[in-house]
Amino acid sequence: MAMKNLLTSALRSQRRLALNRAARALSSVSALDSASLTSHSPSPTPPILMPYDHSAEIVKEKLKRLENPDQRFLKYASPHPILASHNHILSAPETRVTTLPNGLRNSKFEEQRINRERDVILREMQEVEGQTDEVVLDHLHATAFQYTPLGRTILGPAQNIKSITRKDLQNYIKTHYTASRMVIAAAGAVKHEEVVEQVKKLFNKLSSDPTTTTQLVAKEPASFTGSEVRMIDDDLPLAQFAVAFEGASWTDPDSVALMVMQTMLGSWNKNVGGGKHMGSALTQRVAVNEIAESIMAFNTNYKDTGLFGVYAVAKADCLDDLSYAIMHEVTKLAFRVSDDDVTRARNQLKSSLLLHMDGTSPVAEDIGRQLLTYGRRIPTAELFARIDAVDASTVKRVANKYIYDKDIAISAIGPIQDLPDYNKFRRGTYWNRY
């Protein structure tokens, strides 16, 4: 019986082995058949590339180019790619100049576009009116330079914008876009001689009206008027005001001293912090007593005058203390000035001027502005020498000239019921000292 069971199990195992071999053979044949079928069948269509897939392909292609740069752009087999034949790229200033005169020579002034730009300017005017800091400074100019061109806003009244015509634009360009009032400034990888040649070719049809800005200013000179303008608006959470003295013009030698005095007063914002450890006595006083949200000293220069003052934002119950602190520290410049404060302000001013020159666009803008205001580009060494020439005695002299017992202009908006009146501000411009 046992022998019979052994024979039966042996036969079953042989059958299983045979079935497994047959199954393996069939699977291999089916795999070959499927492979042959797939090789003869057409490949499926690739999926549609999405925009981000296209961007990824572009990035991959650029990475491949960086990994395998063209040998023409490699020099001396250096591992760092160096552009060897770059003269044909940098010697084409025409591509940088030809677009400038298009607005002067090829403008068609189509009525449709004029209407569209008119709507854009009106929307910008509404946006500016919603920015309280812009409103305060516009009102400050309006009250300080009453009935003069400097008292008008940059955008102008809405009625002029709505009524401007094609002929008005053409007359404006013909009158003001003259050769004597225009500067073409370039910075970066450009050659001066080639840029000059391109400008001579492209700007040869400009008006040669000899009228200069000096003559225009002489017709309507700016006159400073001590006054104030206030707009009470209790819906605003904070009060904002600016107090300013008449400053110096661009070409006035005292303008550099006023720049140093502006840096001495400094600026501060509550969100930034650090006011308790700043060098400015005004910012320290404001930060320690927590009487303002932000303050900023400003010095604005124009052709024949300027504005020097402080702009502040504060809560309604802090206006009295804040106004006293501002007038005290500003007037103190005419009495007590330490050499350490002047040195700190000089160094900080020079650092900010250098940081402003970071890039070709700021450099080109600085070149154009200085040529229009000074008639030349002042070298950095000369400007720093003028700043270093300002000492404590210079600050006192300039403060006595522009601040001590001088009229002021005030502009305020918001919940300003507790802001002191004009006479109290004016009283803070002098001290009874013997």
From TrEMBL:
Q: Where do Low complexity bias regions lie?
A: 30-42
- Keyword entries, A-Z: Hydrolase, Metal-binding, Metalloprotease, Mitochondrion, Protease, Zinc
Stored Pfam families: Peptidase_M16, Peptidase_M16_C
Q: Does the keyword Thylakoid apply?
A: no
Q: Where in the cell is it found?
A: Mitochondrion
Q: What is this protein called?
A: Peptidase M16 C-terminal domain-containing protein
Does Transmembrane helix appear among the keywords? Answer: no
Q: Where is this region: Disordered?
A: 30-50
- Classify the main location: mitochondrion
Q: Where is the Peptidase M16 C-terminal domain?
A: 163-349
Q: Name one GO biological process term.
A: proteolysis
Lineage, top-rank taxon, reads Eukaryota
Q: Where is the Peptidase M16 N-terminal domain?
A: 100-157
Q: TM segments? A: none
Q: What organism, scientifically named, is this protein from? A: Brassica campestris
Q: Which InterPro entries match?
A: Metalloenz_LuxS/M16, MPP/UQCRC_Complex, Pept_M16_N, Peptidase_M16_C
Look up the record and name the cofactor or cofactors this protein needs: Zn(2+)
